[in-house]
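S1.2 Input.
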Amino acid sequence: MIIKSPITTDLKIKKLEDLQKLKPFMEEANLKINKSQIARELNVDRRTVDKYINGFQKSKHRSSQNCLTPYKDIIRELLSDENEQIFYYRRVLWQYLRDNHGYRGSYGNFCYYLSLEPELVSYFRKRLPARSESYIRYETPAGRQAQLDWKESLKLLTTDLGWVEVNIFVLILSFSRYRVYRMVPSKSQEVLFFCLDDAFTAFGGVPEEIVTDNMRIVMDQPRTRGSKGRINIRFQQFADDYGFRVQPCVAATPKTKGYVKN
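S1.3 Output.
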């Protein structure tokens, strides 16, 4: 018994596209072809064969929905002059939309569709820092400072639960670079308190200050170049209980906590 190997999708499309080459011969010699037989051999509908004979070509580009459309009004409001928070980088805006407005699009698609809006492109171009700008490296004494950050929304494939989304808590001592990692399912304030308490136990003490960004579980109002911001009252109480000072970064200045960013 002879078993025919199944025809691949790419080869099927190539054979269908080649059908349009038959049309000039069919018209010139008044020939007819058995479209039903071709359809059976390629395992497609007879109407598909007819469509390709008449010149149809499958698009080489994937079409996707503009994922920014439902968020355009929110984005314009966030980037308006009336808003005290300034977004210097597209990634900061993308992460803010994910954390506060339920945005689920990828960062790549976000940047692509953002580039189609001239007013938004102009906004970020005006706020790009000068490339020649440089910063002085500084070190802190032992026990003075720790830097806090998250590696967010990592997707892991597990044998029992399939794909799961996790977050990595990171706290690093600026002097020794000793660091603590904790994998957690969420970034709630209770989870942050647990991770900090666990990290202090691992360190064997509490640093004088913790440098953090403007995550909403720490800051009710972000710190900017023109504003000191406002620390969340529950986080401030936690800091007072443990005896450390909260040192938020100015928005869009990741260099302030470069150790943990690296």
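S1.4 Remarks. The first helix runs from residue 9 to 18.
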